[in-house]
Amino acid sequence: MNRHLLSAADLSVEDALRVLDTAEEMSRVADAPVRKLPTLRGRTVVNLFFEDSTRTRISFEAAAKRLSADVINFSAKGSSVSKGESLKDTALTLEAMGADAVVIRHSASGAPHRLAHAGWLHGSVINAGDGTHEHPTQALLDSFTMRRHLRNGKGDLAGVRVAIVGDVLHSRVARSNVLLLATLGASVTLVAPPTLLPVGVEKWPCSISYDLDSVITKVDVVMALRVQLERMSDAFFPSAREYSRRFGLDTVRLARLPDGAIVMHPGPMNRGLEISAEAADGLRSVIVEQVANGVSVRMAVLYLLLAGAPLTDIDYKTLGPS
Ligand code: NCD
């Protein structure tokens, strides 16, 4: 593994499977009587969030704490960033405090890359979402969740068919998922109106469709993306009703999925827009599991980047019987 996790493309198939397998082991901690491993005792993890977040931030915090790291939560609101302090000065402050890992979310695509490569920090940088660019740990938790439901016996996702539906244009989740799923051998179809697809998408390792109804009968996973209204200055579709009619997941549409297919969403959801309440809470939905799995996957990432040692070094006695 590289020292940093900035893009899903940083992960070779071996790296990705190592994270996913390690996350399986980490998930046992969540079920153990004492939900803690001593592995990162004495290490400091900083959560540096310049953009709002619920799931990702809480999940990284829980992951670091379950590995016994010291956690510093830093949000731009209420810090000197709101007084105009630069990313560089913020980084130098974190370095002075001895940060071993910095988990960064930023509205500017490329901010984690700058933090990792400008020479300001010695620790690892983990991208927790940068602009419309990437969100690699979300892709890892999505693949982890798919693997749990759709294992093909080989441990990877070879041959698994995934539809990612909706606002691909603004979605860092979509880009990271396409990259990671291609690495793991899955076949991905992006389904969106042409206005919500980014320039250059034809070069991504996936296929494109504008017609959800023709795709939905042939997939093992359907992942709805949030319509990112806060990043939209123009009208990208005629009306919310029209969008739901063509690209929304509802019970009628989901009834046409093959048996065993699952429904995913990275959250936060616009219920009634890209997904109906019944679809979000229905039997095929694994949306709540995605959130729980996020903690195990982020534990695995922190562990592999910071401890770097083979998994056998985990003190399994602290986990109790499996
Ligand atoms: C996503 C994000 O922030 O990129 N959410 C998440 O991390 N769970 C997706 C979104 O905001 O729509």
Polypeptide structure, described:
The chain has 11 helices and 9 strands. The strands form 2 sheets. It has a 5-stranded parallel beta sheet with strand order 7-6-5-8-9, covered by helices on one side. The chain folds into 2 domains: 156 residues, Aspartate/ornithine carbamoyltransferase (Rossmann fold), CATH 3.40.50.1370; 152 residues, Aspartate/ornithine carbamoyltransferase (Rossmann fold, 3-Layer(aba) Sandwich), CATH 3.40.50.1370. Helix 5 crosses helix 6. The protein is globular, with a radius of gyration of 19 Å. It is an alpha/beta fold and 322 residues long. Bound molecules: N-carbamoyl-L-aspartate (NCD). The site of N-carbamoyl-L-aspartate has 11 residues, from helix 2 and helix 6.
In short:
The protein is 36% helix and 14% strand. With 322 residues, it is of the alpha/beta class.
Features:
five-stranded parallel β-sheet; single chain; 2 domains; alpha/beta; 322 residues; globular; four-stranded parallel β-sheet; Rossmann fold
Domain tally: 2
Structural class: alpha/beta
Low-confidence stretches: 310-314
Count the beta strands: 9
Query: Superfamily at the CATH H level of the largest domain?
Result: Aspartate/ornithine carbamoyltransferase
Topology order in helix (H) and strand (E) letters = HEHEHEHEHEHEEHEHHEHH
Distinct small molecules bound, one entry per kind = N-carbamoyl-L-aspartate
Radius of gyration: 19 Å
Instruction: Determine the CATH topology of the largest domain.
Output: Rossmann fold
Helix content: 25-40%
The helix tally amounts to 11
Major sheet characteristics: 5 strands, parallel
**What separation lies between the terminal Cα atoms?**
27 Å
Question: Globular, elongated, flat, extended or rod-shaped: what is the shape?
Answer: globular
Please give the order of strands in the largest beta sheet: 7-6-5-8-9
CATH class of the largest domain: Alpha Beta
**CATH architectural group of the largest domain:** 3-Layer(aba) Sandwich
Assembly classification = single chain
Mean pLDDT: 92
DSSP strand content = 5-15%
